Amino acid sequence: MRLTPFLRLAQSPALLESLTIPAQAVPAAKSASNLPYLVSRTKSNRIPVYIRIGAGGSKKTTLIQRVEGDRMALRDEVREALGMGGADVVVNPTTGHVVVKGSHVPKLTEWLKNKGF
């Protein structure tokens, strides 16, 4: 049993035109397609930047995973963005992860978002 009656809208074309909203694509901040590397998002649509804690909690490293393409170019840009030296940002040759000394997860996540990833 329904307590309130159904609401019926008029079927006039003028009303229907005023109710329709054109679909517009949301422009991306920047296109990452012209970069020599690609950082793919995870299945849950997150940027794959993680912290690894070792040596009893005193050694922290930040990992950028899911990197495809020119990892060395990404390494160089991360060095420049964080203002770090040569040995502080390296590429693991086995896994392909970019490894950064220290805890830089929020900075790198925001930096990658601004790059369009």
From TrEMBL:
InterPro entries: Ribosomal_mL49. GO terms for cellular component: mitochondrial large ribosomal subunit. Keywords: Mitochondrion, Ribonucleoprotein, Ribosomal protein. Belongs to the mitochondrion-specific ribosomal protein mL49 family. This is Large ribosomal subunit protein mL49. It comes from Cephalotrichum gorgonifer. The keyword Transferase does not apply. One of its GO terms (biological process) is translation. The keyword Cell division does not apply. GO terms for molecular function: structural constituent of ribosome. It is found in: Mitochondrion. The lineage of its organism: Eukaryota, Fungi, Dikarya, Ascomycota, Pezizomycotina.
